[in-house]
Amino acid sequence: MASGKTVEVGEETFETEVGKAATLVLADFWAPWCGPCRIVGPILEEVAAGNDGKLKVVKVNVDDNPGLAQRFGVRGIPTLVFFKGGSEVDRMVGAAPKDQIQKRVDKLIG
């Protein structure tokens, strides 16, 4: 369900897309049946577009990639995990408005 500025990643592409990324990465752990995930999806598209070149937004479908969800301790969705240099630096659990997500991005890019 990734489109626009977001990239769908899975077990086989996670390391390349997230671990080796030159910018801050926001990984959205989600599922198609999750109502709050569907609310956050378009917000993340806007955040990705507004931070082009400074932030990469990737989507991880937890139904298709349970190993990644387990590896990062994702217990509820949506969970937004921020990575710098391949390491987790922050996370947000649950749906959040655009301004809250953008504040977190600004702090981490800053």
Q: How would you concisely characterize the structure shown here?
A:
The protein is of the alpha/beta class and about 110 residues long. About 35% of the residues lie in helices and about 30% in strands.
Give a count of the beta strands, DSSP E runs of length 2 or more.
Answer: 5
Strand line-up of the largest beta sheet: 1-3-2-4-5
How helix-rich are the residues, as a percent range? 25-40%
What is the third-level CATH name, the topology? Glutaredoxin
Integer tally of domains = 1
What proportion strand?
25-35%
Question: What would you say this structure looks like, in words?
Answer:
The chain is α/β, with parallel strands linked by helices and 110 residues long. The protein has a single domain, classed as 3-Layer(aba) Sandwich (Glutaredoxin), CATH 3.40.30. Helices cover 36% and strands 28% of the residues. It has a five-stranded mixed sheet with strand order 1-3-2-4-5.
What labels describe this entry?
36% helix; 4 helices; globular; 28% strand; five-stranded mixed sheet; 5 strands; 110 residues; Glutaredoxin; alpha/beta
